[in-house]
Amino acid sequence: MARAVTPARKAGMTILAWLVALLIFFPILYTIITSFKTEGEAAAGFSLIPSGTIESYIEVFSQRDYFKPFFNSVIISVGSTILALLVAVPAAWAMAFSPTKRTRDVLMWMLSTKMMPAAGVLVPMYLIFLNTGMLDKLHGLVLILTLVNLPIVVWMLYTYFKEIPVDILEAARMDGATLPKELIYVLLPMAVPGIASTLLLNIILAWNEAFWTIRLTAVEAAPLTAFIASFSSPQGQFLAKLSAASTLAIAPILLLGWFSQKQLVRGLTFGAVK
Amino acid sequence: MATKQTRSLARLMMAPSVAALLVWMVVPLALTIWFSFQRYRLTNPAISGFAGLSNFSFFVTDPAFWPSIVNTLILVLGVLLITVVFGILFALLLDQPMWGQGIVRILMISPFFVMPPVAAVIWKHELMNPQWGVFAEIARFFGQAPVNWLGSYPLFSVILIVAWQWLPFATLILLTALQSLSEEQKEAAEMDGANFANRFYYIILPHLARAITVVILIQTIYLLGVYAEIQITTGGGPGFASTNLPFLIYNTGVNGGNIGAGAAGGLIAVVLANIVSIFLMRAVGKNLDA
Prior knowledge:
heterodimer, A: 274 residues, mainly alpha, 2 domains, globular, B: 290 residues, MetI-like fold, 0% strand
């Protein structure tokens, strides 16, 4: 039974929480508002009411060749996620269903590879990319982001797979299910939600990765992270355009994120907090 | 149940992941060690050969070296402090009964999904710019002179930006942990006459301990490598005021073309991260049930 709450207290908490939430959200909100202003309005000072023009969006699409970095981001994040899943699903499966004494050590070791600072190995990676012609190429970035996120993908899948009750397999076997049938009709339906959440979270992480994607690209393979980074110094009247480009860069992931926020905690904490 | 057959099948299934991560761990690190003892300039192939320890002495005598170490640590600790303290406060707030909790949650978690370059340009150009930024407008509204945030308080500004990105993460995880605290326990404590301070200190905080260590562990991994926010907002300056270790390594090794010194710096970053992680893994390893 819930504790009795006075309406006054609930109203007070509601106001306080909304104030805090709006304060935290304000930079994003203001960016969205500014993206619907003209450059003149954007430069004119603080205002929460835009004229509603979409000229900045048109300009971003036409002049700035927005599509290329956008599709690069899609290819890099989706490609590296699928590649990581292909490698990680069997591994997580094996560790969850036939654990040995060393499973825990293997998992901890995988996690420890995340401790390697990217900057620590930037120099050799840069040279390898330079000498193999992978610099500013999409396949190079797909490969590196697969490796960067692989430990998280294995961990996340492992925590999901571990929750699948093994008894149900025996029940299916008693009922005469063969191994392929067992996989397709019994295990797969239970594994799909976990794999889907892992997929979503990893796409978010790969989309927002901003060290390798900026440092190992120039023009051809540059994703949105590098595209936005090119706005680092002011260029004439540019606030509205910058806001439109930023809004476009974060909108897809913001929606995915809102969608998967329940799974997020568990994925990001390696199952330690559920 | 694990027969010999299933065990070797399990090994086979794990092989690709283990092999990939092994290569990813060993090859770049080995190369970093190798290059750190070589004379190697991107721009001048004539310079080559064994360098002894000269790359290390070059890197650590760089006037930016000690500032970069100190800045790296201040950045990590500053962001951790802000996100953990406010994360706990916000989690407690969000756990209260209210109207529109779902929307409040969504608004609060949003900054976490903003890619670092977008966060950096938004804060730099729209909020912190001393002429047209929102902070400057607020200062003028109160009759104060606008502050040049990135120029006068560069490291603090970067901490603020990075904390904004990670606060939602801390809040969400602490909130999730808080919600698993049983209602009965809270109620019982309330009936026994425990006030909020007592309840917080003796019941809520111990319950959150595990989630807090997890938040610290994961954020530290990412915070040691903060790069894009600095490159975009301050470029490491003014002077070295906001140069951290990853930024210095990039500047020396790739930008400056001194591969040997960059690799030496990289090795220092690896050692630093390992010192931090040994402490953290020990603290958190117990909490992760594998």
